[in-house]
């Protein structure tokens, strides 16, 4: 582990002090030289590195730099094998805090009664009348629920289960289902899956979202009297190919994961997945590019559904082994004009999720896929991961983000780069990929130019003012726990964010609840955080 110190002038050495139980610094346990200073372009800071990986004894420490008088000192930090365990639990439990349609009680006053119980079909869905569908997770700082974003979020979490079950199965989340026969982690994810299932029409197609027509004010969810409408494209066939394909992918994963706990539910998931896939394949032109004129909640507009269809096909094939689902994957691969390339996943681009699930598909413990394609997936993943590792070496703070990554939700990108690195680690465990993924966690949890932890209630100096309605409206000073800030954005997208003067990209952040393009929280950013926290351990 390293500590990046940004100091006024260059210093030569540092020391690590162990904190005493009374919170004062105790004995010096380590000292060493600081690296030569480097100019970090992403923050504008002059950075020196302190390598204290020799400090292995669990405990709380502080780092001091000889720097004239008085000597400069870091915030307190913890060393230990289990330092990521509580952050993992909090980041996952945050989904319970996002639940819609039921009573939520996280303790400490973070609670609300059931919310958003008035539901109806909007004309854009092609139907009219009432609609009873409570549930799901509030997407972000708003109370909308969106299939596309639910797709990548629940998909990422279920992958975390498939890959890091040892970390996740023992986790106690203190949710209403705790103590039942399904592990807490899966019970929480099922809450959102059940909501998603209700957005599937009888013909197999899936609507875009269930939200009010406009965002409500900064009020508690139970005080939001707006009707939650099922919203579609506003023109036939009303349902959406991207949403339907993401839905199919997630339900196909769920069919694998829940089978041992609830085969009836697993069967329902598989059936829903197949019907959504068939609908999406037959309606590739049914896109949701922007909101219909009557609606102004989040759009998650996406002009390309080929990546979602690829993901749905690959997951269904992995679950069933049925060649009809493999065929589109092989066809897409053979039609590629350039070598296969692994992008960092995002809500709008899930192509690499498709390739990775293809490469992980097993049958009786044997890899099932075309050996040549699997080899190409491995190689291109390693290539992309090598690029990230190289970038992290250039950065003073050791994260893998480059300048272009400092967009809306850059902290989510840091999480998804962690996911890519952990895929590389799976394909090539000898590499440094897991260490680079850990580097992104250090960055998110405090090793950044603000010395701030971007996860609420985690670390010595967590951020305080997320764009998150319950955190603002509940009358409690501290925000709801376990939520990841969207993070720095070099393209400020709201009036509060626009008050930040133009600076190096990492500095384009503000701990202000109004700055939604920099400091909102979202289920698709917490999911790769959970994944990376789970995969970085062990
Ligand atoms: O995460 C989304 C980001 O990629 C987009 O640039 C941005 C603007 O369209 O929207 C983000 O998603 C928001 C969604 O539309 C509504 N709920 C809050 C989401 C996070 O800010
Ligand atoms: Zn709600």
UniProtKB/TrEMBL annotation:
Single GO biological process annotation from the record: cellulose catabolic process
**Reaction(s) the record says it catalyses:** Endohydrolysis of (1->4)-beta-D-glucosidic linkages in cellulose, lichenin and cereal beta-D-glucans
Top enzyme class, one word, equals hydrolase
Domain Glycoside hydrolase family, which positions? 88-533
Q: Where is the active site?
A: 511, 520
**Any GO molecular function:** cellulase activity
Q: Which UniProt keywords apply?
A: Carbohydrate metabolism, Cellulose degradation, Glycosidase, Hydrolase, Polysaccharide degradation
Q: Which PANTHER family match?
A: ENDO-1,4-BETA-GLUCANASE
Q: What is this protein called?
A: Endoglucanase
Organism phylogeny: Bacteria, Pseudomonadati, Acidobacteriota, Terriglobia, Terriglobales
């Amino acid at each position: 582990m390293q500590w990046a110190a940004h100091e006024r002038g260059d210093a030569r050495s540092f020391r690590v002090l162990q904190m005493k139980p009374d919170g004062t610094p105790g004995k010096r346990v380590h000292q060493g030289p600081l690296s030569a200073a480097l100019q970090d372009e992403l923050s504008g800071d002059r950075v020196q590195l302190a390598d204290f990986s020799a400090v292995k004894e669990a405990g709380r420490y502080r780092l001091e730099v000889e720097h004239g008088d008085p000597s400069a000192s870091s915030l307190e930090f913890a060393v230990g094998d289990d330092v990521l365990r509580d952050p993992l639990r909090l980041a996952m439990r945050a989904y319970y805090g996002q639940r819609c349609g039921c009573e939520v009680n996280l303790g400490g006053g973070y609670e609300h009664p059931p919310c958003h119980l008035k539901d109806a079909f909007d004309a854009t869905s092609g139907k009219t009348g009432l609609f009873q569908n409570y549930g799901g997770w509030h997407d972000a700082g708003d109370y909308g629920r969106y299939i596309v974003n639910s797709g990548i979020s629940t998909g990422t979490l279920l992958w975390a289960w498939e890959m890091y079950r040892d970390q996740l199965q023992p986790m106690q989340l203190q949710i209403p289902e705790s103590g039942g026969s399904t592990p807490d982690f899966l019970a929480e994810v099922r809450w959102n899956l059940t909501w998603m299932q209700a957005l599937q029409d009888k013909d197999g197609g899936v609507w875009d979202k269930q939200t009010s027509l406009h965002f409500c004010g900064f009020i508690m969810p139970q005080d939001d009297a707006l009707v939650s409408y099922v919203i579609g494209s506003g023109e036939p066939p009303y349902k959406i190919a991207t949403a339907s394909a993401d839905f199919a992918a997630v339900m196909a994963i769920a069919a694998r994961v829940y089978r041992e706990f609830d085969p009836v539910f697993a069967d329902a998931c598989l059936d829903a997945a197949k019907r959504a896939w068939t609908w999406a394949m037959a309606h590739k032109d049914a896109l949701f590019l922007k909101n219909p004129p009557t609606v102004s909640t989040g759009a998650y507009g996406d002009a390309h559904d080929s990546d979602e269809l690829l993901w749905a096909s690959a997951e269904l094939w992995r679950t069933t082994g049925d060649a009809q689902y493999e065929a589109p994957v092989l066809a897409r691969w053979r039609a590629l004009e350039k070598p296969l390339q692994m992008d960092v996943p995002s809500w709008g681009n899930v192509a690499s999720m498709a390739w990775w699930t293809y490469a992980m598909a097993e049958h009786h413990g044997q890899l099932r896929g075309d050996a040549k394609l699997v080899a190409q997936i491995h190689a291109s993943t390693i290539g992309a991961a090598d690029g990230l590792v190289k970038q992290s070496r250039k950065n003073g703070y050791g994260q893998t983000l480059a300048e272009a990554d400092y967009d809306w939700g850059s902290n989510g990108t840091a999480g998804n780069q962690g996911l890519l690195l952990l895929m590389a680690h799976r394909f090539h465990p000898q590499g440094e990929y897991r260490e680079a993924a850990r580097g992104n966690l250090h960055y998110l949890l405090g090793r950044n130019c603000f010395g701030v932890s971007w996860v609420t209630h985690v670390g010595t100096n967590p951020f305080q003012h997320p764009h998150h309605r319950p955190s603002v409206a509940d009358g409690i000073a501290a925000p709801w726990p376990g939520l990841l800030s969207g993070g720095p954005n070099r393209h400020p997208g709201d009036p509060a964010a626009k008050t930040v003067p133009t600076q190096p990209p990492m500095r384009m952040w503000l701990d202000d609840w109004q700055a939604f393009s920099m400091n909102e929280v979202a289920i698709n950013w917490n999911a790769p955080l959970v994944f990376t926290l789970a995969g970085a351990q062990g």
